[in-house]
Structures are given as structure tokens and as C-alpha cells.
Amino acid sequence: MTKHIFRTKSISEFISETKQDGGMNRVLGTFGLTMLGIGAIVGTGIFVLTGVAAANYSGPALIISFIIAALACGCAALCYAEFAAMVPVAGSAYTYGYVALGEFWAWVIGWDLILEYAFAVSAVAIGWSGYFNNILTNLGIVLPKALTLAPYDGGIVNLPAVLILCVIAFINIHGVRQSATVNNIIVAIKLAVVALFLALGFSHVDAANWVPFMPYGWSGVFAGASIIFFAYIGFDAVSTAAEEVKNPQKDLPRGIILSLIICTVLYIAVSAVLTGMVPYLEFKTTAAPVAFALQAVGYHWGAAAISVGAICGLTSVLLVMSFGQSRVLFVMSRDGLLPKFFGHVHPKYKTPARSSLLVCVVTAITAGFLPINIVAEMTNIGTLCAFIIVSAAVIVLRKKNPNQERAFKCPLVPLVPLLAIAFCGVLIYMLPLVTQIRFVVWLLLGLAIYFGYGYNHSIISQARRGQLGAAPVPGAVAPAEQAAQEGHPANH
């Protein structure tokens, strides 16, 4: 069994599977992918986490924390870009792990992504509900607490959170073109709001607020980087759209890298202006630091505009993260590691409708009935681990299959992947111990599911049993599996 859990699938096999059920519609280009990435990245990080990190970890050195997190993501993004161009298949890190490292590590990454996406979507939906209720209250419309709070908080259900997730699922099910169009509009609005904040806040920057610049020392800066790393989660969601891209070999690397660069510039600019407008300790009292800063200098109408921008920002995050979650589930199901019922493409909309519905149901229940403090306990450790595995996979595949055609090559291999591994490893180390323990528990649950279901139901397992007959010889490797391990397509 030890040998078989590291069985790989060839790139040819993955690509041939994308043509099942007619495949999905290829409608996205570089612009759409870049907007998709910005839609996933600019949201909670810029409207919430900037204040938390400045007040509790980095102080005005928040700028350096963002740069450190950006370096970690940048190195990982180059690794993602190489794989995305080489393996233009939905599933992101899960697919890349399957090609280079084998089924076991693919499952670990996929299980990891399921948790990250699902709880991130639920947490953002609860945050969206809070902003939505705040806007309604300012308009004189007060919803009963029973319909805006989870049972733990004294309500019955967080109905706005449930409803927005249903709307998001409806958009995603009806097609990637519709999803991308809605996302483009929302991203344009929130970028305009961020530009408004920078324009209004720049003239109110007081250099005295940047002193002391590093109040918590370098340990605080790195701890801040591990916290605001969440702000960058999303560029990897671009790669989940691989099967819906017109020219994946060129457009995917461009979309991944451009979205990360644009968002990094925005984060650095916003953090510099934010900490220059208001003393960093004052952000301890607010969960809406950008709006708070504008109110502090007298721009109340600007604060209201920021609230609208926050709603847009969180909506686009929900849209793209739900999109990514459904694609990961879809590919894992298509590979047999999860029930194949969810690996189905809708004949009319050409989208993984069943996976999208499953994501909607799970996240709606979580967001509707659990309080934000429980849902928000999910942190960055899973994504950091996924980045480490993908970076390692680049090095491994360069050794195993150096002649494989690569439309985009990660530069300076193995240096860049090793830097990504090192950066992500340091950020994992800086996370709280309870987060690390929680991750191990989730991983153990995933291993139980893999060995109880996925191992025996995967396409490779079925092919091996078909080749060897009803009584497989212990330790034997079927031709289909051997071909996959050697990087050639198996004849299923």
C-alpha cells in the first residue's frame, strides 16, 4: 500500500479527462483571470486585517509585514504559474500534487483546500452580513436579531449570510461568463473605493504616527505577516479556473502574477496611509479600520462609501472563493477520491453544478448557525502547507520529467521554490500552537476518509483492479498505474 498511495497521474490523463461531458466553456482571458484574482484577494485583508495587524503585531511596520507576506506568495505564485501553464486543469494545488508527488499528497492538499475555502467563505459571509445590517440600520431598517445572529449569539439563523451564499451559488451555477462579469463589476467598484481612500487619506498623513515604526520588534513584524497572509489568499483561486480559460498556457501565469502584483501595491499603499492617518493603537477598538480612519479625520461620507466598498469587496471574495471550492471538489470527485456524483458537468450551463450546490449547502449551514469567532478560527496554515507542497512539487517534477514542455518556467529553480518553502515555513512557525493542533486533527480526519473511501475508489485503483482481475497480486503494479508513475498516459 505504501507504494500505491504515491501513484501519480500523467498530465495527458488529466487533460483527456477535461473533455468528459463535453468539458466546460473556455471564455476567460488574461483580463478576466486578473480580475478574478483581485476579486478573491482584495476584501477581508484590506478592510479588516490591516487594523488588527497594525494594532496587535506590526504597528506602522505593517508595510514590512505585507512585503514579507508578498515575498512568500510571490515565490509560491511563480511555482503555481509553472504548473498552471503545464497542467491546465481545474483543481489547482491538488492537481499539481497528483502529477508530481502522487495521490496521497494530492489528497492532503485537496482536503486542506476544502477546509480553507469552506470556512473562509463562511467567515466572509458572516462579515458580509454584519456590513449589510450596518448599512440597513443607517437607512432606518432594523432586522430582528433572531434573523441576523447565530443561535450561539442569541438568534435563530444569520439569514443575510445564508441568502448571499445562495445568490453566489446561483451565479456560479449559471456559468463562468456570468460569474466573471459580476466579479468584474464588483472589482471595479471596490478598486474605485480603495482609490478614494488613498486620495482622501494621503493629505492627512502625519509622519509622527509612524513613530515608533516597529513597536513590537521583528518578531511582531513576522507575526503580523503570518496574520495578514490571509489577505493574499486568493491568487491560487485563479488556477482553479484552468478548464475555463481560452489560452491557459499564457493567460494563467499572467493572471496569477498580475493579480498578486496589483494587490501587493494596493496593500502597501493602504497600510502606509492608514497608519499615517491614525495612531496604530487606536485600531484596537474597530473591526473596520479603513472607514474608522476616514471618520477620525472628518470624512463621514467617505466612511459610508468605504462601507459600500467593503460590501462589494466581500461579495467578490465570496464569488471567487466559492467558485474555487466547487472546482476543487469537482476534480477530486472526477478522480474518484470523493463520490463521483459531484464530478458532473451540467449539460446546459457547462459548470460543476452539483459541486456548487454542495458548497452552498455546507457554507450556508456553517455561516447561518455558527458564530463568527468559531468559524473565523480557520487560519492560514492550510494554505501555507499547500504552497510548500506545490513549491516542492516543482523541484521534484523538474528532476523526474525535465523534458516536459513548460510554457512558463519558474525562474531560478530550485532557489525560488526553496525560498517559498522557507518563507511559508517561518510563517507557519509564527502561528499559534492551537492552530497547528487544529490542522493536525483535520488532517487525521482526512486520512481516515482517504483510506476508508478514496484509496479504493480512485480512478487509478479501479484501473489497476481491472487490469489484475478480482484477486490482485500483493505488491503488483498494473500497466495503467505503471504508465502513470512514469509520466505517460494510461490506457483506461
Automatic annotation (TrEMBL):
It is found in: Membrane. Keywords: Membrane, Transmembrane, Transmembrane helix, Transport. GO terms for molecular function: amino acid transmembrane transporter activity. Its main location: membrane. InterPro entries: AA/rel_permease1. The keyword Transferase does not apply. The chain crosses the membrane at residues 27-55, 61-83, 104-129, 149-173, 185-204, 216-235, 256-281, 301-324, 356-375, 381-398, 410-431, 437-455. It is a multi-pass membrane protein. GO terms for cellular component: membrane. PANTHER family: CATIONIC AMINO ACID TRANSPORTER 4, INNER MEMBRANE TRANSPORTER YGJI-RELATED. This is Amino acid permease-associated region. The lineage of its organism: Bacteria, Bacillati, Bacillota, Negativicutes, Veillonellales.
